[in-house]
């Protein structure tokens, strides 16, 4: 029997040409593609990766529910991990596709603690993050020289992380800005940063949209797949 | 005459298979490859990318001196930018290769303000960052759920940025740790974080080295191409 293996494969945030050579080779050779999904959502990851996937591969959609309920999540992550480990133990090469990079806010990493107990071979293939894609699309550095930068996922409800990041960093990446557009717009206005941000949605796809107008942020018209770059010291 | 264009191309941090499909296509079609170098250093970027580069392409090595002298740097960046713009205006496709991602601490971005004045076509191709590669190589998330993370380039001399990052973040990436190993080790020991870091050198190459021993950090035996991930809340 062929020895199975699990790959966590970063596929970038939208442009199929931004998969790495290594990612495309794994997708071509995998027996099973794991495609995480949330209720009522199509898989954007599958859409990006589809042309590289072996026609004979089985696509296995696994539910990762949208809930903050800790016990339910743990239970589901463990179930999903055991199912994947079983497939690997049966001799399958399994590729778990993940938007952007697998080490940055990916669903794949939630199953990792359970996978590690299963004693199967695992390899994680890094990918291009959304924030690097966004900054590249506007030919602007995230960070130069000895500057720092930080990455803040925006939460629903009031979020002190954002405000603290804006206090302490010159370069800030806001992930999931659609979670709390109003607070985000207010913070930018309060700090006179209306001309110091760029938001890009569905970067690298035919639906890519570049937003620099604070009124659009305020009016909550931001798609889900968006990332914002804020540069306090320069207008962008 | 063919219309020239400048590409800034991220090529990842070591493994040639971590170039994106788009990067390989550009390297295959470019007339001129710009390869930045510092005094007395071979080009690691060229070593990574070499198999994708068109045999007929001209390799143009441009000096980006290692100095903090502002005027000298500005002068050199402008000269380099003008030379590149000239090549593009002559109808060449020019690819400026850059380690990791072009928007994260790259030499390419230093010439961008001068390039923008030249009215030539520019496209930046994102790449896999060293920190994503390092975290992937140890199958460990940089950041999960609603956690933040920050990226701090370590400076020579005393560096308050590191200490502030360790105060305020659970997940910290230290770039260029070899700049100040002693301070880095002292900070980790002071905060009881001897088991909460991993440092990877030349990630993705045959010389890759994974260091988890604080004594090695203390003794300054860290190669130049290294990145450290610190996770305050979990042992890694």
Offer a concise description of the structure.
By secondary structure, chain A is an alpha/beta fold.
Describe this structure in words.
- The structure is a homodimer of 236-residue chains.
- By secondary structure, chain A is α/β, with parallel strands linked by helices.
- In chain A, 32% of the residues lie in helices and 22% in strands.
- Chain A has eight helices and ten strands.
- In chain A, the strands form two sheets. A five-stranded parallel sheet of chain A has the order 3-2-4-1-5, sandwiched between helices.
- In chain A, strand 8 and strand 9 form a beta hairpin.
- In chain A, helix 3 packs across helix 4.
- Chain A is elongated and about 65 Å long.
- Chain A starts with a strand and ends in a 5-residue tail after the last strand.
- Strand 6 of chain A pairs antiparallel with strand 6 of chain B, so a sheet runs across the interface.
């Amino acid at each position: 029997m062929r020895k199975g293996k699990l790959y966590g494969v970063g596929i970038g945030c939208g442009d199929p040409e931004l998969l790495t050579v290594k990612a495309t080779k794994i997708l071509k050779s995998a027996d099973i593609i794991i495609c995480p999904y949330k209720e009522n959502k199509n898989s954007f990851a599958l859409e990006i990766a589809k042309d590289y996937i072996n026609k004979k591969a089985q696509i296995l959609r696994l539910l990762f529910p949208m809930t903050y309920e800790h016990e339910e999540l743990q239970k589901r992550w463990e179930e999903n991990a055991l199912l994947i480990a079983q497939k690997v133990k049966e001799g399958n090469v399994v590729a778990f596709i993940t938007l952007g990079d697998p080490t940055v806010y990916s669903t794949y990493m939630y199953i990792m603690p359970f996978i590690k107990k299963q004693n199967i071979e695992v390899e994680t293939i890094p990918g291009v993050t959304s924030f690097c894609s966004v900054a590249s699309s506007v030919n602007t550095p995230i960070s130069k020289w000895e500057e720092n930068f930080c990455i803040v996922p925006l939460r629903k409800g009031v979020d002190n992380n954002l405000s603290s990041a804006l206090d302490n960093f010159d370069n800030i990446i806001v992930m999931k800005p659609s979670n709390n557009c109003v607070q985000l717009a207010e913070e930018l206005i309060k700090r006179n940063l209306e001309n110091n941000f760029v938001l890009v949605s569905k970067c690298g796809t035919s639906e890519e949209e570049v937003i620099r107008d604070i009124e659009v942020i305020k009016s909550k018209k931001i798609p889900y797949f968006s990332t914002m770059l804020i540069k306090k010291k320069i207008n962008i």
